[in-house]
């Protein structure tokens, strides 16, 4: 079932939570709403679910206007951030709840309910815990019970609010792979909210980046990363180094640092800010004609195949920079903390005077 | 975290606390029973079967039996409004609930006398209908309801506040009606606290003296509850009788204390239910 959101507005007192939100989700997709806290993503999710009412705008499921349709009739499955399992009911009774609440005429027979519950618990691989109470489950297990409960009524739409928010890193990673897999199995149109970039990038078909009640960009994870629509999106997706300096038409300068490049993005007074992603630079022991960014090597952290290095600008004003090298490149560099090195950006993002993204540039 | 006392003056402080409790609380309670039994079991039996005593017990129970359900519903309603909705005057409402705590019961009794007495408009109208409010059962129930109305709400509000309403929302999304959500989700979550509130309300209703004494008119054999009877017999120099009635009240108080302890323990356990998972097995989906 496709979901369409049209011109949604929502205010809480003086605070504008959502401002003119338009969104199209195709049938069977898994969409991640990504944004910092306070960006309105949970409010949007709750409006789509019908738990919250928008001040203006419409929500359509499969072309049908459901804006004024009662929550109970929307056929929506919802997984709450803290799972909201019924603490006084067993796992099986939690999953059966929706079926038991059906009007007598529509309610399946006892045995049919039991069978459906077993199916669902098998689907989330918790059949062996049917008799447990929520307090006796781990976070990941609770999460899966919540999911099974949300799927019991065969919803047209599945909505998940920070589904992995309360889990530790390892369980998180496993569970989101599993969710991706589950979605391929049951392919119900799903929207989930997250503040974790990696999570959104890994799980979603489409990522919706939100900020301050507005949608900044909606695209595939790859597009969002490679062609960010705004400075916010660029900023939000991973760490960046912001380099502030002056541009005289041929080269960019800050103190004794210098980059030779051609661009048209600079301000009239010559100010130019460059964004450098940590993995889009090399480190060498010498400057070149096109790049002279002296730095002092600080702390390093080795994790997996990459080495993250903290670099302190030498003789030019910049915050501590972060550059990622492959393990091989790091070994080849053969440097010690305290050594003077030179950053050689492969690609930089210019920021225009009005704060938007300018063209990408390469020092040459 | 509590620490173990290490110095002698810390032990002294604890000893002083125990002594104060013994002198101020336990001894008087024990004396009630010694006094009641001072002239033997037969006397106690005679006092207990005295028609005035039986009437007082019956009246006390009737008042409590009406008061408790009324305040149970009232308390749930108030707690529901204050914790579930955001509206102008929410804080005010939550403060107003405490009026009976702040006000002397005697004053409450007098207020009711003024508002519902035979000379008032309301009282006059009722007496025209043949219903006497003051110096009769209705008035006594009314002031008892007034005095005990905060208990259930005050127990429920913090609990419901801390539990939030995600479970109710989950129930609604799963198709439950408002009533079903209350019955199958909210009520089980608050049942121990609710019982705790009921126990407190009941204890207060049974023991209420000030407000009831003002509106009862102290009519012998008609409007005397147990606390009023204690006072009456004491004035009549029927000391043993007074202490027997007091003993009954004290016994009820002890039962209340026991129930309260059990329920407090149960409430605490339910509110901590989801705090910590007891299982930490490897979580591989």
Specify the biggest β-sheet of chain B. Answer: none
* Major sheet size, sense and barrel closure of chain A: 7 strands, antiparallel
Mind telling me the C-alpha Rg of chain A? Answer: 25 Å
Net shape of chain A: elongated
Task: Specify the overall morphology of chain B.
Answer: globular
Largest interface: A-B, 40 and 29 residues
Q: Oligomeric state of the chains?
A: heterodimer
Question: H/E series of chain B, N to C?
Answer: HHHHHHHHHHHHHH
CATH fold-type name of the largest domain in chain B: MetI-like fold
Name of the CATH superfamily of the largest domain in chain B: MetI-like
* Structural category of chain B: mainly alpha
First-residue to last-residue Cα separation of chain B: 38 Å
User: What is the CA-CA span between the terminal residues of chain A?
Assistant: 51 Å
Report low-confidence residues of chain A grouped into runs of 5 or more. none
Task: Describe the overall structure.
By secondary structure, chain A is α+β, with helices and mostly antiparallel strands. Chain A is built from 9 helices and 22 strands. In chain A, 25% of the residues lie in helices and 35% in strands. In chain A, helix 2 crosses helix 3 and helix 3 crosses helix 4. The longest helix of chain A has 18 residues. The mean pLDDT of chain A is 91. Chain B starts with 7 loop residues before the first helix and ends in a 14-residue tail after the last helix. Chain B has 14 helices and no strands. Chain B has 285 residues and is an all-alpha fold. The relative contact order of chain B is 0.13. The chains are: A alpha+beta (364), B mainly alpha (285). Chains A and B meet through strand 6, helix 4 and helix 5 of A and helix 10 and helix 11 of B.
């Amino acid at each position: 079932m496709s979901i369409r959101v049209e011109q949604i507005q929502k205010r809480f007192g003086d605070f504008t939570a959502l401002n003119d939100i338009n969104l199209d989700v195709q049938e069977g997709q898994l969409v991640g709403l990504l944004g910092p806290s306070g960006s309105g993503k949970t409010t949007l999710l709750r409006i789509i679910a019908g738990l919250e009412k928008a001040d203006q705008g419409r929500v359509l499921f499969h072309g049908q206007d459901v804006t004024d349709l009662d929550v109970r009739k929307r056929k929506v499955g919802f997984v709450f951030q803290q799972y909201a399992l019924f603490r006084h009911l067993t796992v099986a009774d939690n999953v059966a709840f929706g079926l038991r609440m059906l009007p007598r005429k529509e309610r399946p027979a006892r045995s049919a309910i039991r069978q459906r519950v077993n199916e669902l618990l098998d689907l989330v691989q918790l059949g062996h815990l049917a008799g447990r109470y929520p307090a006796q489950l781990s976070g990941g297990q609770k999460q899966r019970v919540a999911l099974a409960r949300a799927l019991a009524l065969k919803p047209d739409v599945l909505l998940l609010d920070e589904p992995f928010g309360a889990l530790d890193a390892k369980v998180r990673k496993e569970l989101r792979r599993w969710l991706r897999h589950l979605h391929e199995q049951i392919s119900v149109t799903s929207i989930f909210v997250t503040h974790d970039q990696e999570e959104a990038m890994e799980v979603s078909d489409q990522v919706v980046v939100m900020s301050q009640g507005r949608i900044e960009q909606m695209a595939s994870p790859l597009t969002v990363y490679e062609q960010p629509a705004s400075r916010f999106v660029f900023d939000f997706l991973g760490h960046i180094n912001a380099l502030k300096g002056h541009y005289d038409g041929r080269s960019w300068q800050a103190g004794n640092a210098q980059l030779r490049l051609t661009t048209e993005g600079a301000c009239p007074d010559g100010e130019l800010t460059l964004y450098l992603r940590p993995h889009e630079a090399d480190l060498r022991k010498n400057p070149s004609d096109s790049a002279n960014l002296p730095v002092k090597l600080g702390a390093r952290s080795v994790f997996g195949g990459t080495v993250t290095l903290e670099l302190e600008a030498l003789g030019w004003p910049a915050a501590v920079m972060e550059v990622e090298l492959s393990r091989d490149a790091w070994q080849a560099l053969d440097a010690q903390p305290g050594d003077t090195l030179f950053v050689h950006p492969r690609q930089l993002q210019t920021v225009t005077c009005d704060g938007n993204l300018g063209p990408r540039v390469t020092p040459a | 975290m509590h620490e173990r006392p290490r110095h002698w003056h810390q032990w002294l402080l604890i000893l002083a606390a125990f002594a104060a409790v013994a002198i101020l609380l336990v001894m008087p309670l024990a004396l009630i029973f010694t006094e009641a039994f001072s002239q033997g079991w037969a006397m106690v039996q005679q006092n207990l079967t005295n028609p005035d005593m039986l009437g007082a017990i019956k009246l006390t129970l009737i008042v409590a039996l009406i008061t408790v359900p009324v305040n149970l519903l009232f308390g749930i309603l108030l707690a529901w409004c204050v914790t579930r909705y955001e509206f102008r005057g929410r804080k005010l409402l939550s403060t107003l609930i405490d009026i009976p705590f702040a006000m002397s019961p005697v004053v409450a009794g007098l207020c009711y006398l003024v508002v519902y007495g035979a000379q008032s408009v309301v009282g006059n109208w009722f007496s025209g209908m043949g219903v006497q409010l003051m110096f009769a059962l209705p008035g006594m129930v009314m002031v008892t309801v007034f005095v005990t109305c905060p208990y259930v709400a005050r127990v429920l509000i913090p609990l419901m506040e801390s539990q939030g309403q995600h479970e109710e929302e989950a129930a609604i999304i799963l198709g439950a009606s408002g009533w079903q959500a209350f019955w199958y989700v909210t009520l089980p979550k608050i049942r121990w606290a609710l019982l705790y509130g009921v126990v407190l309300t009941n204890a207060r209703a049974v023991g209420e003296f000030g407000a009831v004494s003002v509106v009862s008119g102290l009519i012998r054999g008609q409007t005397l509850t147990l606390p009023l009877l204690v006072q009456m017999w004491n004035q009549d120099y029927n000391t043993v009788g007074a202490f027997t009635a007091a003993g009954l009240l004290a016994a009820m108080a002890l039962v209340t204390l026991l129930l309260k302890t059990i329920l407090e323990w149960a409430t605490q356990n339910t509110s901590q239910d989801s705090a910590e998972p007891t299982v930490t097995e490897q979580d591989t989906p």
